[in-house]
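Quick start: load a record and inspect it. Here is Palmitoyltransferase:
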Amino acid sequence: MSVSEKSSPERRTLDQKMGQLSAVMMPLIEIGAMGFATYVFLYSLCIDYLLSPSPDYRSRGISPRRGTAIALMSIYCLLVLIVLLTWLRMLQVIWTNPGIIPLGHPDSEKQDVSWMGMEKYDAFISDYEGNPQWCDKCHNWKPDRAHHCRELNRCVRRMDHYCPWAGGIISEGTHKFFIQFLFYGALYTTFSWIPIAIFLAERIRVMGSKPGVWIAMLPLCGIFMIFAVTMFFMTFWNQSINYTTIETLQRGGVHNIAMLATRRDPNTQSPRRNSLSHNSREKPNVLREVIRSDGREYVVFQTQPFVNPWDLGSMENLRTIMGNSILQWFLPFQMSPCINHDDVKGQYGWSREVLDMARDWERDHPDRRITLLSNTRRGRRRSS
Ligand SMILES: [Zn+2]
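Running the structure step on this input writes:
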């Protein structure tokens, strides 16, 4: 539990106000910096220096370079446009539906609250008793991978982090647009300073002048470029291994997973034992078996440390956020596939290690079956 999760209601209100204020101030600073960069790049460099240099420039041998000016202006405008488009799309989802979990009644305790539809899943992240995880501050259940955000004072689905620079929460709904924003932001900030540096060197050489606004552009773009490039590679790498930033910080821990189990029809055969692969693996760590009041039976497994239960392989991990086509990867329109939680197997896909764990248990319990495995096999048959 983080420090913020132990804090008082007053402290939480203060965190919330500070978070909301910073999510307004930081974007305003960025918009101001973009405005300044646009003035210097488009007007001072492209129009005033390259497209139609003043008589003073011409008398020093600086002639118009219309082709260069138009090419630079076109690329700059295109990059600004795509940066703004991805940013606005991200803000739209931040303000409308980033994946915020509804608040429960302040007096409700977990034994009184229904599972918020989580009973439909074959498997979910659970506590030691086999219940979904509970948030004391929201008074509601936490879906898999949800985390309580102190700035919003709410649980958010697949929360990555709260980013004042982007203008709000990075979660399952906004992660894709955040990655695109960083990618195009990295291209934009890199492109903005290189022509300035080249023509600044020319001006110093030919005219001996050192315009302050051109010089100011270099550290300004440089700082934002380092920030955007670093964040892009970090975020993209985390997504390729299917970890959010929060999960990366918690890496190494174990996960409790409750899996629905049913009694096997005595007439059906249990899966054939593959002694080689079975015996070569450790026995699954089962914390307990639970029978709920409605008769549903759950087996609560615990993963080994460092096992990522959501790792589906690099490409599939990226597809769950970025989309299933190249257009979806680069254009900020369609939402990520992972916001769809209709699959009864789980709220997100389960890794091979999780399925192996269930398979090993099933082989030791020939009279029982884990519904996650039956539905996985059925899904494969349907897709083949
Ligand atoms: Zn919460």
